[in-house]
Each structure stands twice: as structure tokens, then as C-alpha cells.
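Hey, I was hoping to borrow your eyes for a little while. I've dropped the whole record in just underneath, so have a look:

——
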Amino acid sequence: KKDDQYAIKVDDKTGPLFDAIGKNSHVFSPDSKHLAYTAKIKNKWYKILDHEKGQGFEAVSTPKFSPDSSIFACIGLTSIGQNKKKQQVVVNTRKEKAYDGIVQKLNSPVFSPDSKHLAYAAMQDKKLTVILDKTQGPFYKMVGPPAFSPDSSRLVYCAQKDDFWFMLTKEGPGPLYENIGMYAFSLDSRRLVYTAQKNKMWHMVENRSKGPAFEQVYIPVFSPDSKHLAYLGTNKKKSVMVIDGKKEKTFDEIGFFQFSPDSTQYAYSAKNGKKCFMVINGKPGSSYKAVTIPFFSPDSKHIAYTVLKDNKWHIIKNDQTGQGYDIITPPFFSPDSKRLAYMAKAKDKWTIVVNGKPGRFYDGVAIPVFSPDSKHIAYLAKKQNIWFVVVDTVENETWLKGGVKGARLLFDSPALLHTLGMRGPGLEFIRLEIKISSFGS
């Protein structure tokens, strides 16, 4: 701020001064090469790209970049005639058709994953339409958010005509329902599923075919190879997973669901009364006081999860139960799947456990990371008020007062890592680089 004016500062460079800058409007492009924000000069708001002023409007929405960072879009508000306002999407410098409103709450505008297409929902005379690449669709009583398939070849959305809802795809309108909820594509873009209500019951719908009826149906999950579909349904306060159209065992509660990376296995946590289970490939395991999220190894040969037993938290890897601790963080596997690590607390001290073996105990530790070749594990550790990097079991001599929020240890190569931290007395920011070959020397 300078003399009642405001500017955006990036690194050591300060942009131009404006009367105001839109709150939380500054956005970096995905490739980090561009900055966009909104700013006010007198009575007009402008879209700003790399500190260059664009068109002015009475109001401007927070900017959006395309996934490839080449396109920049926002919504501008202008007055047309007396007491009549219009909104229009602006793509780079091109203004699109003005409407009574652009419906931002319907995820508008939205870019396709390949950045070649742009869609948004708009209102005109109290009816809604979806625009795709400047081509306006039919008007309806209501529409849902437009969604692109992962390969960008398909755009779908739901629409309401009279008192019924239907899905609109490139094949045309789907069957009529009382309501339509969420919709999702498989990762290969070949399958589309959505939740729909008929006779006050909800179904998962695919290719016009309804799945079992439930009081509620929840988020669909496709396997990584797109061949399998799982979702949760509830009836009369009971929960059941549906896998490829078939109902599994009913439980009082069902937690997080996960497919293995190779799509051949699945697991989820479940509860009956006070007993909690991990269900693996449809079979409930032993009961515990609590069971958390399942984690598969990258090669899909191992599964790990946390359980509460005898008032201690344990990691179970496959069928082996690890040592109990007061607190355990979610486990994670090394890239080669041969090592499993997690943070654990015993009384007032923390340690990193690797393959069941605890390391040194410290006043605090931060989330560890494996090297790309899986040979090394690195983390920040704390003694009294001083932090330092530990690689495997070796403590680095460079001390830090603390880390930078959002900064983590990152391996630049199997033998080189860095992090950002603060050290005193003025709490300056430093970039700490460590070469493992010379570590500790």
C-alpha cells in the first residue's frame, strides 16, 4: 500500500498502483509463468494479466487460466441502457455474448482438460443455457454444471424441463427423473455415471440403466483402469458398497473406499455397533475399536491401515500388526513398494517408523519423504526449539528456527534434496540444499 493505493508484489518486483485490488483475486497460471488479478481505477474494475491492464467493467470475477496456461478467462459486468446490467465471459481480449447473468456457482466458465474448449452456464429471461465454444445450447428451466470428460471429447450437463430432469450428452437427452445429483466420467472417458431420483429413491445410472434403489447414493469411484465402479448406498440408516452393480455386506457405517493401483483389489473401512473392520475384496477382517483409511502400495502387493487396539494405535501391513503408539499418522509406501513409513508419538516424543522399526525420538518431526529411488528417507526433526534435516539416521548440522508454511522436503534427484526454512536472529528465509553423498561430512 502506498498513499491509499495498492499494488501486487511478486518476489522483489512491485506492480502498478491501483485504487483497489480484488480480494483474493490474484491467481498464478498452472505453469507459474503468469499472474492475473482484478484491480480498480476510479469507478471501473479491470482484469490484469502480468500487471498489464485489460478491459474495464463495473465488476470483474476472479480470473481463471486454462490448464495449459495459454488462455485467460473472466466474467465482466456492464450496464446496458437504464437500470439494466449484463454479464459476459471475456476470453483473453475477446468479449463473448452478453447475458442477464453468467452462473458462476455452476462452475462457469470451465475449460476442458486439453484447454481447447470453454463452456459456461448463462441466464437469459429467467431461463438457463450452456454455451460451448461460443455456440449456445437450448434454454431450460434449470441446468447443472457443465463437465468435460478427461480426454476433453465430451461435454455433459443435466437440465430441467417442466418438472423433470435429464442428462444431456452428445448422444442426446437421457431418461426423465425427478432429480439428478452428481455425475462423473471414468478415467478413460468411455463411461459416464450419474445419480438420479425416481419414485423418491436414488439410483446410480449408466447407459440408461439404473442400479439398485437407495434412500441416498454417494460419490461414484472408478478403478484406475476404468473397468470397475464402486459407490455407497444407504437405506434405513444402513450402508452398503455396490461394486460393479452387486451389493456387498451391509454395515452400520462405511468409511473411505480405495481401489488398488492395478485395479484388481479394493478396500474400505466399516463399522457395526462398536466394532470396526477393514473390508478387503469383500471380506471383513478382525474387529477393532477404530479403523482408518486403507493405503495400497504402488505395486498393489501390500495394504496398510491404522487401527485402535487396547487404547494404542497400530499400523497393520497385510496381516502383520505393528507396535502400539499414542498417535500414528497415515502410513505411506516408498516408490518401489518395499518400505512403509509413518510418524508416531509415544508419550511426549515423536519418531519416524520405517518397516516397523522406530528411529530416534525427538521433540517433534515433520512428514517424511522417500527419495525417487526409495533408498533414502528424509524428514525434519526438532530438539528443543531447533529444527534440522535428518536423512536416514544422519542429522544435518544446519539448524533452522522453523519451516516455511507449505514448504516440504523435496528430492531434486536421488542424491539431492532441498527445503525452505527460517533461521535467526532476524528469521530470514533460506533455501537449504543437501547432497546425500557428502551428507554429514
Observations:
- The first strand starts at residue 9 and ends at 10.
